[in-house]
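Structure tokens please, single chain.
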Amino acid sequence: MTQAKHTERGTRPAAGHAVVRAVLWAITLVALPILVITPMTLHQQLTLSVAIFIAALVTNRFPGRVPTLALIFLSVVVSSRYLYWRVTETMYMDNLLDLVLAGCLLMAEVYAFVVLLLGYVQTAWPLERKPQPLPADRSLWPTVDLLIPTYNEPLSVVRPTVLAAMSIDWPRDKLNIFVLDDGRREEFRTFCAQAGVAHLTREDNRHAKAGNINAALKKTSGEFVAIFDCDHTPTRSFLQVTMGWFGRDPKLAMVQTPHHFYSADPFERNLGTFHTVPNEGELFYGLIQDGNDLWNATFFCGSCAVLRRTACEEIGGIAVETVTEDAHTALKMHRAGYNTAYLALPQAAGLATESLSGHVGQRIRWARGMIQIFRTDNPLLGPGLSWAQRLCYLNAMLHFLYGLPRLIYLTAPLAYLVFGASVIHASAAMIFAYALPHIFHANLTNSRIQGRFRYLFWNEVYEAVLAWHIFRPTLVALINPKLGAFNVTAKGGLIQKQYFDTQIARASLLLLLFNFIGVGFGLWRLTWVDEERIATVWLNLAWTLYNLVILGACVAAANESRQVRSAHRVDLRMPAVLHVPGAAPVACHTFDFSTGGLGLDLPDELQRAIGTPLEVSLFQGEVEHRFPATVRFSGGKRMGLRFEALTLSQAHALVQCTISRPDIWSQRWGQHPRVAAHQVLAHIARISAVGFQDMFAHYGRAIARKLRPSRAAAGVSRGGDST
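Here you go.
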């Protein structure tokens, strides 16, 4: 792609940076092979490693993207040198067991190295595309069909999305809203008629969501199609933010915006990290998609996006060959020569999965679908893609193969501790000299690149929870991509009581047992191993203890917390006026809201009995809307209200005042502070300790329940003997 086209698509590197890039490429092509393959003694390797790491620490103090590229270069140098050393110097094994176990570990390390390199390609220079203005003449704005596919979700989940869609600032005669009801429910038809939006159904549910959208495409005619999952509520600025780029690029087929969630996902809720630790998806939507956009490789994510109808029709509609229909659709668009774009500006928000089992099921579908694409429409093969697009798609697919490598990392030190197998044929000193620089540089560089969207070590917690569950379906998809069905991710459910999900935690518990056994063997080996090998024992023990910390956090994630709110609260401070019968109106501010009520910060103490009827005013610009409510709690200068029997017009006005505000989600986006590695690890260790407590408490109660009937029966038996 030419520099002119780069500039047209967004904020591309300036021309002066092209010279810098050329120099860096020249240095890389000459220096990297020399640095990688030059053999060194232990002293020389340590000296080189220390020198490079000091250079990296100094470089990291400078802001800007060129220092980031320098850090990436240094990381690639030490990681490539480590892998070359591993392949050429550490694979001399004396027996078959050592060779097999060493080969498995090396395979995992090669996988991690490839993913590291591809990740650098994706994230080194995020495009940071900005919205483009629309024509001043609104009559020139195109027509848009807004589709909301739904299957089995309750109306309480879909209703706010429809009302938010109705609030979008776009000419009424150019925006048509369609609820695609694959559940064919009468209450949905009635609600759509009342709201004045179209209700579409079809005779079957063939191809699930993709088929539902494709059926709607045949019944609609707008120039563009906006798609929202039924729990994703758009802001009223959504179309004005996204549509400007279509006017600048006639080959632009799709504009994607982030998936933002206003409810805690299972990790955040069970581990208590909501709003304090970036969630699992923020790295993808905060950084990777923005990095993909540099290479014209933005993925369609199934929701919060706008597609050009002609481009969609040219590729045959939404892809139905795999269960990851969204990414496959983008791949087909790119093969057809179309462009895609990403705006890292949240313009919608939705519900995260409620339970860890639902979250795992969703990730299994994503993993199986991406491997299906890899097998049936491999991005490395076939026409239409640039080399950069192929690499971006390849990394997305390779990512979901982390199951087996993660399991290997969680068990690798046991090979030596339990069996005495030498999986790395080298001294502990040499392992330190080569492996630690590789680990330190990768963490330092990724911390700089990813710091606001992913904290160090957290990816290991996420992957360790999912590893076993992901490994099986991805292996099946590699063997036979046609196996497996589409599963709908449940939204809007409740968790009435806390419980420990033993089904999800089973693999983590088994791995915990193995690692505890490894610690026992390691302590035993310390008592008799010869002095030359004692460092190796300590190295593997340290690795095992780290695995125990990660697995303890996995166990904590499986302890499901209660989720009893049918309407999730969102932090938001905005003006309000409280109208209490018999008293003057009170100007105040909200501190949170939901579709069912809101919380108020009052200027003075105001006590009212629970259930007291009153009204509260919220504002949409200069327009005031009043809502009937009752007091839910009252204490000091705070009061909680519950809305009472809102009419459809009042519910619509509430949405306009709250979740459809243009700034409501963007002000929270990417605001996590950078946290030092030792602080992150200490946080995970504390969570891990809680996980062990939860595990022992759960199994302690289970054992007590089993013993109680036995004791009771024994008591009856003794009583019978004494009579």
